[in-house]
Amino acid sequence: MENEKTLIQFRNIQKSFDDQIILKGINLDINQNEFVTLLGPSGCGKTTLLRILGGFLSQDGGEVYIDGKEISSLPPYKRELNTVFQKYALFPNMNVYENIAFGLRIKKVSNDIIEQKVMRMLRLIGLEGYEKREITQLSGGQQQRVAIARALVNEPDVLLLDEPLGALDLKLRKEMQYELKRIQQEVGITFIFVTHDQEEALTMSDKIVVMKEGEIQQVGTPVEIYNEPVNAYVARFIGESNILPGIMVDDELVRFDEQDFKCVDKGFKKDQPVDIVIRPEDIDIVPAGKGKLNGTVESVLFKGMLYEVIVETVPGTHVTVNMHITSETANQKDDGHIHISGNSFYLDVDDMEGIQDKDLIARADAQAWNDETDEQLSIESVETNLEKKIGTYEITFTTVGGLSITKTIQVIDQQTVRDEKRNEGVSAFNFFKSKDEIQESVALDTDLKTWANAQGWRLNNEDQGIPLDVTYDFDPETITEGVYPVTFWTKGREFKIHTTDYVKEGSRVGLAFGPEDIHVMEKEGYTS
Amino acid sequence: MKTWRRLAIPYLIWGSFMLLLPMLLIVFYSVIQPGNDVATFRFSLSSYVRFFTDRDFLLILWRSLKIAIETTVLCLLIGYPVAYWISRCSQKTQNLMVLIITLPMWINMLVRTYAWIGILSEGGPLSIVLGWFGFHNVDLLYTEAAVLIGMVYNFLPYMILQIHSSLTKMDPSLIEAASDLGASPFQTFWRVVFPLSIPGVISGITLVFLPAISAFFIPKLLGGGGWFLIGNVIENQFITVGEWNFGSAISVIMAMVMMLLMTLVRKADRKASKEEKA
Amino acid sequence: MKKKRPVGALITTLIMIFFYVPIVFMIIFSFNSSKSLTNFTGFSLKWYEQMFASHDMMNSLYVTIVVAVLATVISTIIGTITAIGLRYSKKLVRAYVTQINDLPMMNPDIVTAIGLMLLFITFRIERGFATLLLAHIAFCIPYVMLSVIPKLRQLDPNLADAAMDLGATPFQTLTKVIVPEIMPGIVSGALIAFTMSFDDFIISYFATGQGVKNLSIMVYTMAKRVNPSINAISTLLVLLITIILLVVNIWPVIREKIEKKRQADPNYLPSPHKHTARNWSIFAAAAVAVSCILFFRPAAGTQEFAGQTLHLYLPGEYISDEMLAEFENKTGSKVVVDNFDSNEQMYIKIANGDSFDVLIPSDYMIQRLIGEDLLMKLDPEKVDEALVQIDDQILDLPYDPQNQYSVPYFWGTVGIVYDKNKVDLADLEKDGWGIFADEKYKGDIYLYDSERDQFMAALKNLGYSMNTSDPKELAAAYDWLVNIVQTMEPEIVTDEIIDNMANGRKALGMIYSGDATYVMQENENMGYYLPKEGTNVWVDAMCIPKNAQNVDLAYAFINYVAGYEAQMMNSTYVGYTAANKEVEDELASTDFEGINSYVPRTGYDLDETFEYNPDSRKTIADYWSRVKVVASNSR
Fold first, then answer.
1. CATH number of this structure's domain B48-277
2. Three-class DSSP category at A250
3. In this structure, are C181 and C218 located in the same domain?
4. Separation between Cα atoms, residue C397 and residue C236, nearest integer Å
5. B187 touches chain A (CB under 8 A)
6. What is the extent of the structural domain holding A49?
7. Chains touching A by CB (3 or more pairs below 8 Å)
8. How many domains does chain A have?
9. Is C287 a member of any domain?
């Protein structure tokens, strides 16, 4: 920027609400005539910072300077800046003209000057002829413009915009982005814009401030932020990215997925853990073996201008179990119109802690119904000789009228598949089903996971589940009695690639990228 | 869901009979000759003529209007700052305050009014307090002041609650916006907050004025037997004198006067807001 | 940007004090040991005892609660159903319902009230519990709809379609989807309805009859005479409401805790029941149960009149509760008491066909009722025993020769109660009734709000008969009274005079002898004077109206009340002169010894008894109503 004069300075701003810390000591300089965007997810403190600048909140600690003057003690109406509010906050008791004239009337500006200025503003925002309209007669975009005009007519040094585009639909939002930029360039003052939308930030800003949990992550131009994100958080927030953990082997050499890659970054410590980002558009798809990595195409999505291709380079953790398809009659009994059904099942000896009847019913998928009234009946009692020991047990479910069905429970010590390096564990059980149940299933993948009690988790934290995928090679429509393998697996290393060339799902491909496409970042929270 | 339409039908019949018909009956009785009923009616405006040609009845109507207006104005003057102050408190305090204001309304209105008899009479707490300030042997009971106190006491909560709810419905960012545009707290209040709370003020005025003009037990309890308002005249006509035609006519007149005044208030508001814009 | 606003805080605090002072005052004086409303003489629970002993109070409390609960339940159900129906109705229907719903909300209560009264009268529906309930339902429904309709508007219009798409019938859609969704609106509507009904006075006052009264009406009809039991009953209500509010506010917190505890318990199985539905049905069941208990409260005994009800209509504060309780015990019946302010007020009700079993009006009114054929001729055999006990001087008087229609209850005179320290007896002897026009006592007098008696004083002072029908004489009396209200600043009161004179608030006033007896007992500085121009010697007597529903019980009541035991209790309690000769003589020499108002003046030529004359009655009624209007206007 040509004009580098600092206008606003935040010094160590702290703020908390009800013991919750919102801002953790913000330091930030904003120059004159800049379009600055405060970007971050909701709750990151961006709006709080803006409101402190506007004077609607007072900080718990730190100072705010405008033009070198500390302004913390000034009430909003004595500050030389104006705000465009989230939902515009137009005065519903006044028409368009009076809303825009409000600030001038307060300053006791003479009527003819007010008229001049308001008309100029209406021209600027393209709403000439709307001055007599009531606020409620305006569309969202028009209200937005009036709110901007109402603020700008006071000729502030700084305009604060608090997510002003949030209430507009997508098309209008795009229009207003250009409109705002145009207005900013035309009036030539500082705009401070708050948003959670990275696209808005990239389109309009001279400078983007990325915030997270009350702290500034990175300050830079849109290009800097996009190309050189300082950490995985910023990379993830700005644009789509492949982010993977790695280790800096040496200057300009980084290792991930057990391979070393040349890169352009240096200055890290030896063997320092880092995050690596590779933008989807920086990867090219080449024939298998011709690139730096090889993998299988998982999915291809057409996105208008280009294809989004997911390629798996390293497989995930797999576990395969047997599905026993048994005959109908064995699993179902009836007594006239009353029916009951249930399946034998496996149970892990470690899972028996605190097991309840409802869990047993769910595992056996025990159901009872009346085929005449089509009414589901409840399972009234569950009897079992189940013990917490490996072995085979009997279980009897009884429904209304004493109709019961007896099945077996195999208690086994289920082996799990563990992948220490990937920090993943996967387990599943063999299970019994009838042909009908397979065919009647509305969502077979989900049912298979339930029936097999398939689970995936992080080894270092059992509570953190990992979603599983399922594959099988039978045809549900034509399945017959027998034993079928079913495989459950976690996702491996996947890369997202944006390309204009179509590739076939399931094919083997190579991935190519240059050293300059690999951006190495400090790990979040890593202190060297 | 057209079948659900039928759900409203019983009420159409009920409402016509229990709500609309009584009003028609009042009008009907007011225009027939005394002593007649539905079967043998004879049209006559004599009840109206009697009211409007009698200086004393007109005086009573005038006084009822006066005291109802005084009550309304007092309620507004006291109620607005209170409602405003409450609306500026934290949500928790607001809920508590609203509860505190509503609580007395759960206690029988007559009982609360009745308690004022003891407070206002000579030797009661009020005269003792006034005695500290050098006003000795003040006896407010059975005076206009007592009636006014009783009315304000009974109807003020409605005013506060109405204004409070219109103030809290207001988008707080409007206040911030005004302040942001350079308006001082006073200017913010006068140019933004107050105009926007007008609907609440109007429904508050309605809720106070309506019972105030027709009140008859407050004047009877606190004003004594010699303190007639239009409500007492109506009660007297129905309960003691038994002239329903005349009583009905007075009711119609009162309802008309009231409607006229409420329309005026609404019009004034509309005119004021238009002037503001022009 | 929160700032302290000290001025606002101060005003708010003052207003809160303003709101609560009367309530605190009421609570404090409910524990007062004396009747005074200004002097706390000591702690006592006697008003609470009296309250629980008083049938009247307990009954009105029951009526209030039963009507409020029933009206709330019914109006909530109807209001909700109608609101749902309206949502799908044509615009015209919606506009119409909105308009008629606005009627009770946009009109003063008194207009709605007299409208309903005229409706009941026009269609000859006897006013009583049923009409009271109907009226309450009528004005509650619009409030319920007012709070349900906005909730319905917020409802996703596709919600009902979605439910039916998933197989719900219209009824299931209503009960399982729509109603639960608008429940907050229904609950707040029900709350408003309950408050409105619980607190209502004006509409109830005009819509009820047959002695059915809620708390408000009871307070209104007895408030003239200070009875601290009102404070006691109100204190009780305050306590009740505070407890309810506390429970309502604290209950969710407790339930949350219980829920947490249950969930922590490993054996806890989440129950599939719908809590809200169950809670509501429990609430409804409880409400119905409570109302049933309250409604069918009296348990029938084995006595002759067990389970029967006697409707009694008499002036306020004119009967001993103890005596009533005794009668109820003896007969097993229940007495429902309704009070009137004046004979004229009573007459209007009777003439309108309101039914009572026993009335206690005054002499001239009895004459009028006989003349208009509204009273039943008493069977001489059935009242003979009663009549022999009555003082001869008040039997066989012109209003009811040979007492064919009535049995005397109390009797007495009308005179002047005066403060011996403020009024010179010589002035009284010189002026007689004319003392009311004596400038010396300007602003220091009470007139009595009774057209007959006030005109009696005027006529007597002017030297006419109080039974005159000469328009000139009546006009002169009117002028006499107008002159007084315009120049003397009198207060026109009814029963307030009793406590006010007992407290010595004014120098003198017109008073009934029985009330004077009470005043003189309370305050020894008070005297009772009968002017030399003569006065009204009156008799109030029991009679049975033609449309009485329980004649046998009415006879039993008359006989009991005329007896020694009952008259003793009654006269001691009320202070009026007993009609029973033995009781009269005994009390004159014991309890009321030295109190000249207890023994009426008899045999004085200028004293008269009222006779009924329809022409002069109308003239006097009209004149008196004008006098009051003039009085109001001259202040």
1. 1.10.3720.10
2. strand
3. yes
4. 48
5. yes
6. 6-234
7. B, C
8. 3
9. no
Q: Are residues B226 and C39, on separate chains, in Cβ contact within 8 Å?
A: no
- Any B CB within 8 A of A484 CB: no
Is B34 in CB contact (< 8 Å) with chain C? no
**Is B277 in Cβ contact with A76 (below 8 Å)?**
no
Residues C175 and C80 in one domain: yes
Cβ–Cβ contact A354 with C under 8 A = yes
Of all helices (H) and strands (E), which one includes residue C28? helix C6-30
Same domain, C404 and C546: yes
pLDDT tens for each residue of B202-222:
999 988 998 898 888 888 888
User: What angle (nearest 5°) sits at the alpha carbon of residue A368, between those of residues A367 and A369?
Assistant: 130
How confident is the model over A173-202, as pLDDT tens digits? 888 888 889 889 888 899 999 999 888 899
Question: CA C59, CA A344: separation in Å to the nearest integer?
Answer: 69
The answer, for A355 touching chain C at a CB cutoff of 8 Å, is no
CB contact under 8 A, C219 and B108: yes
Do A443 and A527 sit in the same domain of this protein? Answer: no
Chain C interface test: which of A78, A356, A361 (most C C-beta within 10 Å): A356
The verdict on A253 and A402 lying in the same domain is: no
With an 8 Å Cβ cutoff, is B142 touching chain C? yes
C119: tokens are 């409706």
Interface contact flag, B235 C21, Cβ < 8 Å:
no
Q: Are strands C508-512 and C406-419 parallel, antiparallel or unpaired?
A: antiparallel
Q: What is the CATH number of the domain that holds C459?
A: 3.40.190.10
Per-residue burial over B103-123, b = 16 or more CB atoms within 10 Å of its CB, e = otherwise: bbbbbbbbbbbbbbbbbbbbb
Would the CA dihedral through B95, B98, B104, B108 be positive or negative?
negative
CA distance A57 to chain C (A): 6
Task: Give the CA distances from residue B25 to residues A334, B15, B48, C139, in Å, rounded to whole numbers and listed in that order.
Answer: 71, 14, 16, 17
Angstrom distance (rounded) from CA C506 to CA C501: 6
C491-493/C445-448 β-pairing: parallel
Other beta carbons less than 10 A from residue A74's beta carbon:
14
- Report the CATH number that the domain containing residue A471 is assigned in CATH: 2.60.40.10
Which tokens is C58 given?
A: 């307990």
* Contact status of C39 with chain B (Cβ, < 8 Å): yes
Please name the amino acid found at residue A82.
N
Residues 6+ apart with CB under 8 A from B88: C2, C5, C8
Number of domains in chain C: 4
Which chain B residues are Cβ-neighbours of A80 within 8 angstroms? none
Q: Is C112 in CB contact (< 8 Å) with chain B? A: yes
Q: What is the pTM of this model?
A: 0.77
Which chain B residues are Cβ-neighbours of C341 within 8 angstroms?
Answer: 239-240
ipTM for the predicted complex comes to 0.89
Q: Tell me whether B260 touches chain A (CB under 8 Å).
A: no
Probe site for chain A from B91, B175, B181 (most A CB atoms < 10 A): B181
Cα separations in angstroms, C514 against A385, A451, C558, C622:
91, 94, 21, 28
Positive or negative, the Cα torsion across B180, B181, B186, B188?
negative
Q: Tell me which residue range forms the domain holding C151.
A: 57-259
For C93-130, write each residue's pLDDT tens digit.
999 999 999 888 888 889 999 999 999 988 888 888 99
Domain ranges of chain B: 48-277
Tell me the mean pLDDT in the region A132-155: 89
For residues C15 and B82, the answer to whether their CB atoms sit within 8 Å is yes
- Give the up-direction half-sphere exposure of residue C582: CA atoms within 13 A in the CB hemisphere: 11
Among B1, B236, B238, the residue with its CB nearest the CB of C114 is: B238
Q: What is the pLDDT of residues A335-347, one digit of tens each?
A: 778 888 888 888 8
Contacting C residues, span 470-529, partner chain B, CB-CB under 8 Å: 485, 490-494, 496, 503, 505
A140 lies in the same domain as A184? yes
Place of tokens 């010590």: A413
